[in-house]
Specification:
single chain; mainly beta; 8-stranded antiparallel β-sheet
Length: about 240
């Protein structure tokens, strides 16, 4: 049993060290202490389309931390994989708050966000979950960033790609709505950047108690919208 536990511990430590390969070097450049960082939500990933670079998402505490409340500054950093040297970064003060609606995850999205022939973006997804049982809530927001020479620029800010919310009696009766969006890159351009087609599926669920049963009815609605680049960032139009 001890050998098994030790093996699992080693695997966990190895996995953790791989995910934090450049963290110490980057923190030294930023002049941060590790104790100032929310390590639970720290993330690092090699860019698959430019394997000489990695993205680090460093959540830095911007407030005192309590059991159910904290605020984080977001440091989005691109580094040289061979040296760990910072190539560019973007800082958003007070970017993420965790309170009754809890911050549950921060992840790096390296999907095919090809915005023109020479520009590909990467994303940062941030998810939240509410703590109310009769009024459940969850949400994921996506931000996109591009490397422009020695600068890191946000081109899409906190776009909600999924949301689930509702109200019920915690037994049966209630109404819920789930919304999920996917992106498709169009060839049509605005200010030399491709239009992003957003395809959204919304499912409304109504539950009604009937005798000794709970009857559920679903209604599905699909809609499309567009994200157009205005020369600085993407904005939604329908």
């Amino acid at each position: 049993m001890k050998k098994c536990f030790f093996a699992l511990l080693c695997c966990f430590q190895l996995s953790f060290s791989q995910n934090t390969e450049h963290l110490d070097v980057v923190l030294k450049q930023l002049k941060f202490k590790k104790s100032e960082i929310d390590l639970e939500h720290f993330n690092e990933k090699i860019l698959p389309y430019d394997k000489q670079k990695s993205v680090l998402v460093i959540p830095k505490y911007a407030s005192e931390v309590t059991v159910d409340y904290f605020v984080l500054d977001a440091y989005i950093v691109v580094v040289d994989n061979s040296t760990g040297k910072i190539i560019c970064k973007f800082v958003e003060p007070n970017a993420w708050t965790s309170d009754a609606v809890m911050l549950t995850s921060v992840s790096i999205d390296t999907g095919l966000y090809v915005l023109n022939k020479t520009t590909r973006a990467f994303g940062v997804r941030v998810s939240y979950t509410g703590s109310s049982r009769p009024n459940p809530f969850s949400e994921t927001n996506l931000s996109l960033y591009i490397i422009d020479k020695s600068s890191l620029k946000p081109v899409l800010k906190n776009y909600t790609t999924s949301r689930s919310n509702g109200e019920w009696d915690t037994n049966c009766a209630g109404e819920f709505e789930d919304s999920n969006s996917t992106f498709e890159i169009d060839k049509i351009q605005n200010h030399n950047f491709n239009t992003i087609i957003v395809k959204t599926k919304k499912v409304t669920t109504i539950s009604t108690p009937t005798n000794d049963d709970c009857v559920t009815k679903e209604t599905i609605k699909k809609e499309n919208s567009k994200l157009l680049f205005n020369g600085k960032e993407y904005k939604e139009t329908r």
